[in-house]
Write a structure and sequence with these properties.
Length: about 100
């Protein structure tokens, strides 16, 4: 079994926004997964999301990441527009989930 190295950081733009960046190598490429992108309600529409994504992209470049992946809800048009503006494109991947422990 291959040695899988994973690291995770929390990326912040002041107190207005944050996201989690997880880094790993799948044996072929260095990957970054962006998860839990959050912009405070009062800070939306002020460029915080774009600043957050640009900071994440900068960190990915510093770490020689080959590709960045993220998942977005299909009805979140604002987030999808932001991701396209900073260079992301839609893939053909489907997303599946198995919940092992349901929180009430």
């Amino acid at each position: 079994m291959a040695d899988l190295r994973v690291s995770q950081i929390k990326i912040r733009v002041g107190s207005a926004g944050s996201c989690i960046g997880t880094f790993y190598n799948n044996g072929v490429a260095n990957i970054m997964i962006i998860d839990s992108v959050i912009v405070e309600v009062k800070s939306r529409g002020k460029g915080v999301g774009r600043a957050l994504m640009e900071k994440a992209l900068s960190i990915a470049r510093e770490r020689n990441v080959d590709s960045i992946e993220l998942v977005v809800n299909s009805d979140n048009t604002i987030a999808k527009r932001l991701y396209k503006k900073v260079g992301f494109s839609k893939t053909n991947k489907e997303y599946y989930r198995l919940i092992l422990n349901k929180k009430q």
